Structures are given as C-alpha cells and as structure tokens.
Amino acid sequence: MKRSTWSPRAVTALRRGAAVAAALLAAVSATVVPAIAAGTAPTRDEIYRELGVADQPVDYVVLVDTSGSMAAQGRYSTVRSTLSTFLNGLSAADHVDLITFDDRPEERYIGAAGDTAKIISRLPNAPNPSGGTDIGGALDQALRELERTDAANVASVVMLTDGEHDPPRGSGYPTSSGAPWDKLRKRAEALAAHTELAGYGLPLGSGATGVDLLGKVVDHTLVLRPDSIQNLGAYLQRAGDSTRARSAARLLASDTAKGVTVSWTDTGVRDLTDGSATASVTFHSATQRVPLAVSGVRVSTAGVPLDVTGVPKQLTLKPGESRKYAVRLEGSPRAGGLPYRRTEDGNAALRVSGQVSSSWQRALAPDLDLKIPDAAGVTGDPLRVRAEVGSVYFLPGLFSALAAVLVLGWLWWRSVNRPPLHGMLTAVPVFGVEIPDRIALSGRRVGFRPRCGGRGMVYGRRRRSAEGRRVDLLIRYTPDGASGRPDRVTCGPGGQVVVGGLSFTHLPHESTAGPGAPGSGRS
User: Fold this and answer.
1) Cα–Cα distance measured from residue 451 to residue 434, given in angstroms and rounded to the nearest whole number
2) Cα within 13 Å of Cα(276), Cβ side
3) Cβ contacts of 57 within 8 Å, gap of 6 or more
4) CB-count exposure of residue 407 (10 Å: 0-12, 13-18, 19+)
5) Which residues pair with 384 in a beta bridge?
6) Spatial contact of 188 and 217, defined as CB atoms under 8 Å apart
7) At what angle do helices 232-251 and 8-28 cross, to 10 degrees?
8) Distance CA 313, CA 352 (A)
9) Whole-angstrom distance, CA of residue 429 vs CA of residue 67
10) Residue 508: is the preceding peptide bond cis (ω within 30°)?
11) Which member of 390, 459, 497, 517 lies 3.0 to 4.6 Å from 437 by CB, making a disulfide possible if both were Cys?
C-alpha cells in the first residue's frame, strides 16, 4: 500500500515516538540504567506532576476492530484486557471516545476517563463473525468526535486492527484511496491547525496493512508493531506516554528558547576615585515553568574595564525568578593624556559568561527540546562610572617648571645680550678739539648725553672669538635734530668707532672712579 509523504514535522514526531518506545520497552524488560543519579535531577514523571500534565485534558479516540478475524488467536480478548491497563493510565480530565468498527463504526462510550470498568463494559463480548473492516468509516467517526466545539487542545487517535481495509457494499470509502480519503486528510489538517493531533496505529497481525491508512489521514502517526499480541499492553502504554509528552510540550511551548538575562540593577553613577565601588547585578529567568541554572559564571565589563567580584560560580533560578547580587568593582576610567587632576566619566557595559542549562533537559529529551540558549543575555544600559584621576601636584609642578625655564632662559639671554659693562668710554666730535666726554661703564646698560648734544645708550653683547669669549659694546647715538632710528655701531674691547659724528673709544682697563659724562646714567 502506498503511503502519503509526511512533512518534516511528522518525521520528527515519529522519531521522538520511536525513542520513547525504546525507553518504555527497556523499562518493561527491567534493563533500564538510570541516566542521572538519584537526587541530581527530577524524573520525567516528577516533571509531569509539577507541570500538572494530568490536569490537562486530552481527547482519546480509541478505534477497536471487531471484524470476524479478531477472534483468531485470542486477539479480541487480549485487546479487552490490555485496554483496561491503558485506560487506567488516563486522568479524570481526559475525554474518551471508544469506537468499534467492522461493517460500520459504532460509538460504545463517550465521556470522561476514570471509570475503566464502565468503559470496558461497553465493548461487545465478541467480535462480529461476519463483519468486514471499514477503516475509512472508523476514521470519519473519529474526526467527527474531535471536531466538536469543546474538544481538547491535545488529541490522540489510537487504532487497533488485524486486517486491511475491507468495507461492506455501500461504504463511503469503497477503496483505500481517492477523493473520500483526500477529504478525510483535509479535515485532519484543519484539526491539526489548532490541535496537537497525533495517531497511533497498532497492527495485530502480519497482514494488518489497514493500520497504515491512519498515517494517510493524520500526519503525525506512529505505527507501533508489537512482536506478538501479548506485547500489546506495553505498546498501548507507549501511546499514552507519547500523548503525555505532547501535553507537556504544549505546556512548555512558551518556555521554548527562553533563558537567563543579566543586567545592572541600578545604573546610577559609581565613584571609582578610590579604585573601587559597589553595585549590583540581577540574573533573571525568562521562563514560566522551567527551572534554570548557570554554571561557570564570570562577570566582567567592557568600555571601562573593571574587575567584578561577588557573583557565585554556580547559581539556580526558579521559573520567572530574579536574583540580585551585590558586587564590588575594582578599577577606574583610563586617564589618558597629561596626568593633571580632573574628572573622567565612562560607561561599563556588562559582560557575562557561563553555561545556561536546566535540570529538566535530560529527562524530557528526546521528545521535548527546550532549546535553552547556552549563554546568558545582557540587557539594560551600561553602568556609568566616574573618577578623579591624575595628580593635584601636576599642574603646580608644571607651572613651576615652566616658570623656572623662563627665568633660566631670561637669565641666559641677559648674560648674553646684557652682560656687565667695565672700563671707560670716551666720546669726542670727529672734527672738534673739545675735551672728550668720559662715560663710565658699569651695570648692564649706560645712557649718556655728550656736551655736544644728542643722546645715546651703551650696552654689551657677549660673543665668541678666536681669542675666546669677549664683550662687545653696542653704541646707539642720535644727534640733536636728527630723526628716525638712532645710529648703532659695535665697538670691540679697546676699539674705536664713529657714529653720528662722534668718535667713541673704549678704554677697558680705565677705572670707572670719578664723574662720568654729563647726563650719563646706568642700569
């Protein structure tokens, strides 16, 4: 019989169901080895109890083949007895529709689970000896039940049959393909759009190909093939366990891909002038039902690099819990440039490393992948920090050094351009016979007024020569009535020069005692 092509979602569901089946078969044979040491992580049943999976209503439509062939090898009696175990595993919140089918489907029980004896009592004592196998009619009846307005959000169709599709004359599904089956599939797809719908087929014989038709109608169908009719109870239990896993997945859907976020509790300015300050960080669980843990926690900052201490290496968070930790910050904003005393501001962006996980992950795998992000996410604004950096002595020291440099520079300039003057300078008109004016040289600058009129100034300049260092005289003189800049001439030690009609002679070894030229002055 040709199967319909299943979607990737259906393939995933089947693989998960197969994994659960393997685990449950191992439990039945008592060969299971605990994956997690006792006390370190909850079991799947403990998680289901905490989630309240039993309180979540599930619709179960159980289709039991009552055709004549079911009487062979005690199949029907085995179905009756094993159905009791299956129904005992349901909760009172579940809804059961028990349908038998041979030539036509017939609803035997519709109502709440919980009273197994009452439900089983509605089954016929024996199969119909002359009955056919109208699987299409049975599936049509199952979908009608699940299409009711008060149907649950999770639904399972469980089919037990030992034959192939063999409808009576006049059936709406005369063959195992065609337009009627396409309509059934479209109805199932419409249900699956708002319901977690899955099918579980249990063939009770080697020729039970009719169970495969369930997969043509319901996308997420898992065909469980017991090795013998005696294993039917274990396989029915697997169908129930898979349904409970789907209920848990629905309850945990809002927690998928949710993890831990970390932020500064208060981003007000922290003063790091002394090299340290206090702050607090908040770890928040974004889940509603799943507990989370973070291991290998390390907190640091970017922007302004700080050492952050006070957060434990391991921490756990209840669903939705926020936990605040007081931390100490060590460091300060970088003081670039000149180290003068000033206020530096900066932003310390939070950085958190560590592995996020949940104690529920291993127990729920592989049926349910919580997709918890491995790393914690950082939210909120960076922490503002401030510090007084640099030395209070830097600027005074700098200004003092500059002042010292200026003073030394001025003293050097004065020693070169205004050296002390020594000796005597005589001044006499070039073409006159007057007695020379004697200008005593002392101090660093000498002004003079010769008897012939005019005024002048004498100062020295230190120079290097072949004979060594010497002091030349720079003489400026302006005769009376002259305009413009005064004439200037340089006179070497013991030399004679003429400027402005006056002849000046330097007598370096002449004593400066006695009166100078009239109007002479020194500085």
Assistant:
1) 9
2) 7
3) 93, 94, 95, 152, 153, 154
4) exposed
5) 347
6) yes
7) 130
8) 11
9) 157
10) no
11) 517
The answer to whether 159 and 129 have CB atoms below 8 angstroms apart is no
Q: What is the pLDDT of residue 105?
A: 94
Residue 104 main-chain phi, psi, to 5 deg: -155, 155
Give the containing element (helix H, strand E) for 48: helix 44-51
Determine the pLDDT at residue 52.
87
Tell me the whole-structure pTM to 2 decimals. 0.61
Query: pLDDT grade, residue 512 (50/70/90)?
Result: low
Check residue 25 and give its pLDDT: 33
Q: Within 10 A of 273 (CB to CB), how many other CB atoms are there?
A: 13
Tokens 């006792």 -> residue: 38
Q: What is the DSSP-derived secondary structure letter of residue 391?
A: B
Structural contact between residues 59 and 156, judged by C-beta atoms closer than 8 angstroms: yes
Strands 276-285, 307-309: pairing is: unpaired
Q: Tokens representing 141?
A: 């009846």
Closest CA to 87 of 69, 64, 104, 70: 64
pLDDT for position 511:
66
For residue 187, the one-letter residue type is: R
| Distance, CA of 159 to CA of 163 (rounded, Å) | 12
Least confident of 166-180, 315-329, 424-438: 424-438
Mean pLDDT score, 469-493: 87
Give the containing element (helix H, strand E) for 396: helix 394-417
Interatomic CA distance for residues 72 and 204, integer angstroms: 10
Tokens found for residue 454? 């005019």
Residue 36 predicted with pLDDT over 80: no
Q: Looking only at Cα atoms, what is the longest distance across the chain? A: 171
Q: Are 443 and 485 in contact (CB under 8 A)?
A: no
Asked if 378 contacts 351 with a C-beta cutoff of 8 angstroms, the reply is: yes
DSSP state of 180: H
The string of DSSP codes covering 110-135 is EEESS-HHHHHHTS-SS--TT--B-H
Q: What is the rounded distance in angstroms from the CA atom of residue 62 to the CA atom of residue 158? A: 5
Q: For residue range 490-499, list pLDDT tens digits in order.
A: 998 989 999 9
Q: Is 450 helix (H, G, I), strand (E, B) or coil?
A: coil
Q: 135 near 157, Cβ under 8 Å?
A: no
Residue 510 sits at the vertex; the CA angle it makes with 508 and 516, to the nearest 5 degrees, is: 105
For 471, residues 6+ apart whose C-beta sits below 8 A from its C-beta are: 419, 421, 422, 460, 461, 462, 463, 493
266-310 pLDDT per residue, tens? 888 998 888 899 999 999 999 999 999 999 999 999 999 999 999
Q: How far apart are CA 313 and CA 304, in angstroms?
A: 23
Looking at residue 288, its amino acid is Q
